[in-house]
Amino acid sequence: MTTRRPKFEFDADEVFARIRTKPVRWNDLARTKTARSQLRPIIDNLLASGAVKFVRLGGSRHLAAAAWNPSKQEELDEIYGRCRAVDGCMLWTGRIDPDRGPAMYAAWGGTERSARRRVWGIRQRKLDRASTIAMTCANPSDCVLFEHMQRSNSGAKMKGKPKTLLHRIAIATAKRKTSGKLTDEKVARILEGDESTRCLARELDVSQATVQAVRSRDRWRSYRATPFSGLDAANDSGRRRA
Known about the structure:
By secondary structure, this protein is α+β, with helices and mostly antiparallel strands.
């Protein structure tokens, strides 16, 4: 004699009401394979209509209302939930980016972000692009504990150090984007022309100060990279000490 399995009946409104209350895991809505198979059409319709979405909380996927966003404490709990406590530090167990350090993908954010900058934004306020985070603990590579963070400037590490040729090329390229009416053709005309500053300024529709700055190499600098570019900074510092 075979035992007849109970038949599950799901109401779409009740399912949506439960999801809207708080994010819930798929397995908590339907615990058996049979129940999940009957629940799937309802969930698929809710996802297709945009009423619900998938979010990742505590390392697992949850169903949440489309308008749901985590509170600051929920975000912090999610980040620290991916860490392990070691010697007073919260060590990140996820991916470590070579440049940004601990990196996380937040389902509500849509992109991968720095876990440390996210923690700082929750506890303080969002950092600007010129600011970085330095760790003051014994685990600077993977710790994300806010109490071990110190705000720093992105240029602090380079302060007092000579600029390499590649660095100067990058600066010159960035300045060219804000050079207004100057172009490569106009710069070549200024450097090759024998006319007076006033004549060239009138001809090229730029100011006399711009013409003078280009001729004195204060603007629109051109650098040529060579296989010895990496030695340029060392040579510069040597000349300054001489």
